[in-house]
Design a protein that fits this description.
ten-stranded mixed β-sheet, alpha/beta, single chain, two-stranded antiparallel sheet
Length: 405
């Protein structure tokens, strides 16, 4: 079979530990035999980030701006233990956080649904995509311990030199704790545009939820900006496509989500999205079956798996022990990147390859061949647990037959 051609490279960001091992297996079994791969490669493994003082992460994000599409392997965000293990110069920041900041992007996470793995909420027959605002709030907070007898204020110094302050609390009777949060209008607007663009791209309804009845300025500001952007820039397109933008309170949204069948995008503020994306992933069955795509307002896309580097399996691999690691979300990161590259470059063969790669992966699982985590969850009869590489070889067999039809 002649290899499928690409015209523009995509940005390839390699990663760490077991997902790095799977990355090469996926390329060897599912990509290089079928696609004349054009990629601009960046090694985001922790050693290379340490060697380059994390410049490689910045370079990969800027390359994504240049080429428009990237695919990323899972990476380590170092803690104190990793500092010693990898002899790091410093505790480098999360690569995902750095890339999000440079691209000004929003993270969309969507579960991959297969027969035999029933969501814990059985009415969920369609995927629910969580859109998480990836800036500010508690992730860029300022915190202080407070001694009894203190008074704490929210203090603002204006550009013209005038000041204003609000009493947060008078701690006359007890010690306590305070934190200060912030966000920026331009970041919230970018978040809104990313969500509306993605809803149009996916032809799905968009929900947005905050607690504006309690947070009458902070959360209400998010609500107002979303409404302003929607009415002025997106309402006509939504009406044309027959999709809906829907705002509600976060607690009402949770109740609606639990009763729904899925099939929509749920936009959340930073902390809400952090929590709800893991809740939704778990309720659908497995974080290893969760795709993740970072979308910028300018239309840059970076695809990855939602899970981490699978450290425990990596240590087994180093000992020469067999692993049965789920590679599905990483496969779908590649397929998502290829599909988007094909759409941008008008390459129907590449789009078809991405579709067939996903179909072959799902059909392999639904035929009963799966890795250990899915084996424990699946209700299929005659299921078979296979190791990491044998699963990919089984997918490759189906992919070959589909592309040769």
């Amino acid at each position: 079979m002649e290899k499928i051609k690409m015209t523009t490279p995509l940005v390839e960001m390699d990663g760490d530990e077991m997902t790095r091992i799977l990355w090469k297996m996926i390329k060897d079994n599912l990509i290089l035999p079928f696609v004349d791969l054009k990629s601009e490669y960046y090694d985001l493994g922790l050693e290379k980030r340490n060697e380059t003082n994390d410049q490689v992460t910045v370079d990969s994000a800027n390359a994504t701006k240049k080429y428009g599409v990237a695919v990323k392997c899972a990476t380590i965000t170092p803690n104190a233990q990793r500092m010693t293990e990898y002899n790091l110069k410093e505790m480098w920041k999360s690569p995902n956080g750095t890339i999000r900041a440079i691209l000004d992007g929003t993270v969309f996470r969507t579960p991959i649904i297969v027969k035999g793995i029933t969501p814990y909420i059985p009415t969920w027959t369609k995927p629910i995509t969580i859109a998480r605002h990836a800036y500010g709030d508690v992730y860029k907070n300022v915190e202080m311990n407070v001694e009894k007898g203190s008074k704490c204020y929210l203090y603002k110094e204006n550009a013209d030199g005038t000041t204003s302050k609000e009493l947060v609390y008078d701690f006359s009777d007890s010690d306590g704790i305070i934190q200060g949060l912030h966000n920026k209008d331009n970041s919230i607007r970018s978040f809104a545009r990313c969500c509306f663009n993605y809803a149009i791209d996916m032809r799905q309804d968009l929900w947005f939820a905050t607690k504006d009845t309690i947070s009458k300025k902070y959360d209400h500001h998010f609500k107002d900006i979303f409404n302003e952007v929607f009415e002025s820039e997106y309402k006509a397109k939504f009406d044309e496509l027959g999709i809906e933008y829907f705002y509600t309170l976060i607690d009402d949204a949770v109740a609606r989500v639990v009763r729904s069948e899925g099939g929509y995008i749920w936009a959340c503020k930073n902390y809400d999205g952090d929590v709800m994306s893991d809740m939704v992933a778990t309720a659908y069955g497995s974080l290893a079956m969760m795709t993740s795509v970072l979308v910028s307002p300018e239309g840059y896309y970076e695809y990855e798996a939602a899970h981490g580097t699978v450290q425990r399996h990596y240590y087994k691999h180093l000992k020469g022990e067999e692993t049965s690691t789920n590679s599905v979300a990483t496969i779908f990161a590649w397929s998502g990147a290829f599909r988007k590259r094909g759409e941008m470059d008008n390459l129907p063969d590449l789009i078809n390859y991405a579709d067939m790669l996903e179909k072959a992966t799902i059909d392999t699982i639904e035929s009963g061949i799966m890795t250990g985590d899915l084996y424990l969850l699946s209700t299929l009869d005659g299921k078979k647990k296979v190791n990491s590489e044998d699963f990919l070889k089984s997918v490759a067999e189906k992919l070959t037959s589909y592309l040769n039809k």
